[in-house]
Amino acid sequence: MATIQPIAGENEQHPDVALVERVRAGDVAAYDTLVRKYERQIFRIAQHITQNREDAEDVMQDAFVKAFEKLDQFQGNSKFYTWLVRIAVNESLMRLRKRRTGRLVSMDDEILTEEGSVPRDFADWAPNPEQNYNRAELAEILKKTIQGLPPGFRVVFVLRDVDGLSTEETAETLGLSIPAVKSRLLRARLQLRERLSRYFKRKPAAKATPAKRS
Amino acid sequence: MTCTEFLAMLDDVIDESIASQTRSEIETHLRKCGHCEVVLNTTRQTIEIYRCHEIYELPTSVSERLHAAIRVRCKKVR
C-alpha cells in the first residue's frame, strides 16, 4: 500500500513543493507525477465517503482537476497532500448531497451514535485472525465493518490510521477542532474493534465428542 | 487507575504519546486487568489490519481514465 512521505525537516523542502513549482511554470507532466503519487489515497477517501465506485471515480477526477486549477492558491504552509485531501473531501460531500437530493451533508452527520464506543466484548482474538479468511472474504468483512461507522468517524480513522496523517493535519483537512478529531478517532477505533471481534475472536475449544457406543 | 481512566487514554497509549509517570500507572493497571489488556491489543490489531489491507484498490482502468481526463482537462486550463 502506498504510504505518505514523512514531513520534511524545517529547512528541507518537501519534494511536492518542487513539483508544484514545476506545474506552476507550465510543466503538466510534473502534475501527472503528483497525480500518480496520490491517486490511490484520494480514490480510497472518496470511496469511504461516497460508498459508491462511480462517484468515487468522478470525485477523484474533479478533485485533481480542481486542485490543478486552484494551484495558485496553494500556499505551501501545509502539505500539498493535506490540501488535496481537503478538496477531495469537499467534492465527496457535494456528491453525496446531490445523491440525497440536496439535503445538506456534512462530516457531522449521524455523529450521535455511541454504539460500540464502550467495549463489551473482551474475548481475545485468535493469532493472525485475518488468516482464517481468504482475501475476498477479508476485504468484505473489513468493508462491511467500516461502512457501519458514521461518515465522520470513518474519514477520521482513514486519515489518521490508514493514511498516517497527524491529528493536527486531520483536523486541518476536515475543518475540525483537535479535540473533535481525538474524540472521533477513539470512538472509531473502539467501534471497529468491537465489530471485528465478532469475526476474529478466538473460538472456544470444541468439546470432545463422546465415543459412540458400539 | 480505573478502566474508564485507562480507556480515556487508550489513543495516547496506542500512539505512544504518554508521559513516563503515567506509563507506569498504565502498566500496573494492565497487569491486573485482563479486559483492558485485550481491548488494547485488539484495538492495535484493528488498526494494523486496516493499514495492511487495501479494501478499495484503484483499478488500472480507473487510473487510466483519470490520467486521460487530466491530460484533456488540465491542458484546457493552462
Please give a handful of descriptors for the protein shown.
heterodimer, A: 214 residues, mainly alpha, Rna Polymerase Sigma Factor, Chain: A, B: mainly alpha, 5 helices
SSE class of chain A: mainly alpha
Q: Judging from the principal axes of the Cα atoms, what is the shape of chain A?
A: elongated
Radius of gyration of chain A: 21 Å
Distance, first to last CA of chain B = 61 Å
What structural category characterises the helix and strand content of chain B?
mainly alpha
CATH topology of the largest domain in chain A: Arc Repressor Mutant, subunit A
| SS elements, strand count of chain A | 0
How much helicity do the residues of chain B have?
over 70%
CATH architecture annotation of the largest domain in chain A = Orthogonal Bundle
Distance between the first and last residues' Cα of chain A: 58 Å
- Biggest interchain interface, per-side counts: A-B, 47 and 36 residues
Q: How many domains make up the coordinates of chain B?
A: 1
Percent of sequence in beta strands of chain A: under 5%
Count, helices of chain B: 5
How many helices of chain A in DSSP terms?
A: 8
Task: Describe the main β-sheet of chain B briefly.
Answer: none
How much is the radius of gyration of chain B in Å?
Answer: 22 Å
Strand fraction band of chain B?
under 5%
How many discrete structural domains of chain A?
Answer: 2
How would you describe this structure to a colleague?
The complex is a heterodimer of chains A (214) and B (78). By secondary structure, chain A is mostly helical. Chain A folds into two domains: 14-105, RNA polymerase sigma factor, region 2, helix turn helix motif (Rna Polymerase Sigma Factor, Chain: A); 109-203, Winged helix-like DNA-binding domain superfamily/Winged helix DNA-binding domain (Arc Repressor Mutant, subunit A). The mean pLDDT of chain A is 85. Chain A has helices at 15-24, 28-50, 53-69, 80-99, 135-147, 151-162, 167-174, 178-200. Chain A is 59% helix and 0% strand. Chain A is elongated, with a radius of gyration of 21 Å. Chain A contains eight helices and no strands. Chain B is mainly α. Chain B has one domain (3-77). In chain B, helix 3 packs across helix 4. Chain B starts with a helix and ends with a helix. The mean pLDDT of chain B is 91. Chain A binds chain B through residues 1, 26, 28, 31-32, 35-36, 39-40, 43-44, 47-48, 56-57, 60-61, 64-65, 68-69, 118-119, 122-125, 129-130, 138-139, 142-143, 146, 157, 161-162, 182, 185-186, 189-190, 192-193, 196-197, 200, and chain B through 7, 10-11, 14, 34-35, 38-39, 41-43, 45-47, 49-56, 58, 62-63, 65-67, 69-71, 73-75, 77-78.
